[in-house]
Amino acid sequence: MNSTLIWLVIGLSLCLMDFFLPTAFTEYSMGVSALLIVPISIILPYFGVQIVIWMGLSVGLMVIFR
Q1: For the chain, how are helix, strand and coil distributed in percent, rounded to 5?
Q2: Residue 50: closest CA among 26, 31, 29, 34
Q3: Cβ atoms 50, 37 nearer than 8 A
Q4: Secondary structure (H, E, C), 14-32
Q5: Pick from 60, 6, 14: which is nearest to 38 by CA?
Q6: What is the pLDDT of residue 12?
Q7: Quick check: 65 and 28 in contact, CB under 8 A?
Q8: What does the pLDDT look like over 15-56, one tens digit per residue?
Q9: What is the rounded CA–CA span in Å between residue 39 and residue 26?
């Protein structure tokens, strides 16, 4: 399975989970950041680096959304 497809599935499922479960935008920010990793994963094929960028984006978006 391609890493781009993995990030797309993770991002969509996290955004959908936040729609049904009240988590105060925690899952939503993680899902949006996973969707932002999709174009990055095309350019940068290293999965470990993608995870580090995703974690940084998740924390940043959590701070912005709150």
Answers
A1: 85, 0, 15
A2: 34
A3: yes
A4: HHHHHHHCCCCCHHHHHHH
A5: 6
A6: 95
A7: yes
A8: 999 888 888 788 989 999 999 999 999 999 899 999 999 999
A9: 22
Total number of residues shown for the chain: 66
Amino acid letter, residue 10: I
- Which whole-number Å values give the CA distances from 60 to 1, 4, 29, 50, in the listed order? 28, 21, 9, 15
Task: Dig out the tokens for 20 from the structure.
Answer: 């049904």
Q: Is the four-CA dihedral 25, 63, 52, 7 of positive or negative sign? A: positive
* Tokens standing for residue 32: 């949006």
